[in-house]
Structures are given as C-alpha cells and as structure tokens.
Design goal:
Layout lengths: L1 H14 L5 E6 L2 E6 L4 E6 L4 H6 L8 E4 L2 E6 L2 E6 L6 E6 L5 E11 L13 E4 L6 E6 L8 E8 L8 E4 L5 E5 L4 E6 L5 E6 L12 E9 L2 E9 L1 H4 L6 E5 L3 E5 L13 E8 L4 E6 L3 E3 L6 E8 L13 E2 L2 H30 L1
Parallel strand pairs: 2-8, 8-17
Antiparallel strand pairs: 1-2, 3-6, 4-5, 4-7, 7-8, 9-10, 10-15, 11-16, 12-13, 13-14, 14-15, 16-17, 18-19, 19-22, 20-21, 20-23, 23-24
The chain binds 2-acetamido-2-deoxy-beta-D-glucopyranose (NAG) (5 copies).
Length: about 350
C-alpha cells in the first residue's frame, strides 16, 4: 500500500514536472525550463493580493494579450499551457478599458538534449590575442534565426554555485565574480560575439583553473545556452605579423603588436610561404628574419605560440619581394618621360618665337 502510494506520488510528480525549473532572468523576464512534455505555469498580472482585492471587480475584468494579440482569458491569473516550446511569448495584461497593467516575457529553455535550434551545438568558438586576459567568443547565427544575447555566465571555476553575476542597466555587459575569478563580458556591436576580460589573469603564471563560459541566446522567446571551457593557452591566436624590411635577398619582420611582451618570455614560431610562378615552399623560423630564394616573388607569414599547441594566426596578406625593384624602374621611367616632356615644351616654345 505504502509502495503504491509512493509510485502514485512519484507519477504525479513526474506528470507535473514541467516546468522543471523557473527563474527570473531580469525584471519582467521569466525563464521556464521544460523537458518537452505537457505542463503548465501560472502567470499573475498584479502580484499583490491586497491590490487585487482592492479592485472593484477583484481583477475579474483583467484581460490578456500574447505578443500583442488578445487571448480568450480573463482574470488576474493566466494559466499558460506548456508542451515542447509552446507557451513562450510576451504576455501583457490590461484593464477592462484596455489600459496596460503589466507584462511578463516567458522564455522557454528546453532541456532534453534535443537538437539546438539557434546555433548548431558547439558552434561557439573563443580566441585570445595574447595572455593578458582578454578573449572573444563568437558564433554564426542560423540563417533563419538571428537572435540576441540574453545572459553570459563566466568564471574560472567548475562550481556554478560559486559564481555571482551582475548585469549592467542595458543588459549588454555581465560581470561574474567567484572565489577564483572576476571576469566581465560585453556584447560586441556586431551582435555575434562577446568580448571578455579576466581581471585576475596573470600572464606570467600558469593558469590553474579552466575558464568556463556559458552564453544564453534568445530567439523568438526560445532560450538556449552554449558553453565552452578552455585555458587561454589553448585558444591564444597571434595577430598578423608585420613585415619591416624586404628585398630580393632577405626579409625581416616583427612580432604582432597585440602579442604579449617580453617576446623572449612569449616566443612565437613563424611559418613563411615562399612563392614563385611554379612553387610554394614553406619554411619555419623562430627568429625574425629569413633569406629568400632567388626565384621567390611573393612571401606571406603566419605565427603561433611556440610553447603551446594553440592556433596559427591568419596568413598575412601576400607581399611581393619585387616591389622595390619595380619602384626603381617606374621612378626612372617617370623621370625620363618628364625630361622628354620638358624638352618638347622648350622646343615648341622656341618654334613659336
Ligand atoms: C508585474 O509582473 C512582474 C513579473 O513579470 C512582477 O515582478 C511585478 O511585481 C508585477 N507588477 C505588479 C504591479 O504587480
Ligand atoms: C513585451 O511587451 C512589453 C509591453 O507591451 C514591451 O514593453 C516589451 O518591449 C516587450 N518585450 C519584447 C522582448 O518584445
Ligand atoms: C544549459 O543547457 C543544458 C541543456 O541544453 C542543461 O543541461 C544545462 O543545465 C544548462 N546549463 C545551465 C548553466 O543552465
Ligand atoms: C568553430 O570551430 C570549429 C572547429 O574548428 C569550426 O568547424 C567552426 O566553423 C567554427 N565556428 C565558427 C563560428 O567560427
Ligand atoms: C572585479 O573587477 C572590476 C574591474 O577591475 C572591479 O571594479 C571590481 O571591484 C572587481 N570585483 C571584485 C569582487 O574583485
């Protein structure tokens, strides 16, 4: 009997499981976590019972709109039916005469391991220009679903309870503090990346804790979270190499300006592509100069942290090694043309007089 009661009780609990969790994202924005099964959630228009009972009709005449469209429900409390992602939307409630009273945006976060809709799972990538603590995480929207960043949680700790995040007034910057980190992130103007800075990152010390970032994206009141964990040493990607000197025999360059200094402490490895009409030859260097083959007409470069297994920089734009030679020839040619012109002018003048 007791067993039957327990089974029944757990069955009832299962049946009323949706939403599995409810939390407030910010004022007037509610998140319902659901598994996809049927369920319901009660929305209140006026939250204070006292205020409701003070109304002449005790709230009976209040009516509701979902995304601006009137729905056939009246009263202070609205029952929102949930199934998969239905039930999401921006709900407003109004006085009998139509005047606006309140609103709640209901976001649905489906937590059932199903296919993500806004981005492909794992399609968030992060990259850092150096070890100073700045990094950027970026993604590509599904072509039909261009959403917004709803929330960012980021810290150097695996315990989510040890993270306190706060949001700026515009909902575009978040600062998260834990016992081991203080990281803030803001949405870039493009809307498809966030730029973050780890206030406690020391570039000269080994990173002890991994950075974990979770970006919550919203599209059509659908909320999804995408996470990434990394050490800066894994995502560091140098900027473009700058060429300082080039002639037919040799080429010299410097470290990217954005790279960490001193360079002796943060060495880079370079790869140089020597191109001529027929060949492509790759060489590696740890120094900042290289001899050029006689045939080489064009070079380009990329760089990578010499001490970690992180990404190569982008290839630099191609640089022609013939440019100087060409310039000299062009200059001589222009000079000659100018002399011819002036001779012509003098001759024509003397002819006129
Ligand atoms: C309006 O709704 C929000 C929830 O979306 C609630 O926090 C707030 O108290 C409500 N305002 C009133 C006046 O009841
Ligand atoms: C939801 O509706 C309220 C009131 O109509 C409006 O102020 C708010 O901007 C809407 N939110 C969104 C995300 O459209
Ligand atoms: C993010 O979503 C997944 C399911 O998609 C869920 O299991 C996980 O708990 C969520 N993480 C947070 C921090 O809400
Ligand atoms: C992220 O990296 C993966 C693997 O390198 C790549 O396939 C994917 O296209 C990248 N996504 C973005 C948005 O750059
Ligand atoms: C986190 O870093 C910011 C920016 O440097 C600073 O203003 C803030 O006081 C720091 N917070 C804590 C708790 O260390």
């Amino acid at each position: 009997m007791y067993f039957l009661f327990l089974t029944l009780w757990s069955f009832l609990r299962m049946a009323s499981l949706n939403p599995t969790n409810v939390w407030i994202l910010r004022d007037n924005v509610l998140v319902l976590e659901v598994t996809g099964g049927a369920g319901q959630h009660l929305l209140r228009c006026i939250h204070s019972e006292d205020e409701v009972s003070r109304r002449p009709d005790e709230g009976a005449g209040i009516f509701w709109k979902r995304n601006g469209v009137k729905i056939p429900s009246v009263g202070n409390v609205l029952t929102v039916a949930l199934k998969e992602t239905s039930g999401r939307g921006n709900y407003s409630c109004h006085d009998e005469d139509g005047s606006f009273l309140n609103h709640t945006e209901v976001l649905i976060l489906e937590d059932n391991g199903k296919k993500m809709r806004i981005l492909e799972p794992d399609h968030i990538n992060c990259s850092a220009p150096n070890y100073n603590g700045r990094f950027q995480c970026f993604w590509t929207w599904d072509s039909l679903r261009v959403g917004k960043v709803a929330l960012v949680r980021v810290g150097r700790h695996n315990d989510p309870n040890d993270l306190r995040c706060s949001e700026d007034a515009e909902g575009k910057q978040w600062t998260c503090v834990s016992s081991t980190s203080n990281i803030s992130c803001s949405v870039d103007p493009s809307g498809n990346s966030v730029s973050c800075i780890d206030d406690q990152q020391c570039p000269y010390a080994e990173e002890v804790n991994v950075i974990r970032i979770t970006v919550y994206l919203v599209y059509d009141s659908l909320l999804e979270n995408y996470s990434k964990s990394f050490y800066l040493s894994e995502i560091v990607k140098p900027g473009n190499v700058r060429i300082t000197k080039v002639n037919k025999k040799a080429i010299e360059w410097t470290y990217p300006e954005s790279w960490a200094s001193p360079n002796s402490y943060f060495p880079l490895t370079f790869e140089i592509a020597h191109l001529d009409e027929l060949h492509l030859e790759l060489t590696s260097r740890t120094s900042c100069w290289a001899k050029l083959n006689r045939r080489t007409t064009t070079v380009c470069f990329r760089a990578k942290d010499a001490l970690s297994n992180s990404e190569w920089s982008e290839w630099s734009p191609e640089r022609s090694v013939l440019i100087r030679e060409l310039k000299r020839v062009t200059a001589r040619f222009t000079h000659t043309t100018r002399r011819i012109r002036s001779v012509e002018r003098v001759t024509s003048q003397s002819e006129r007089t």
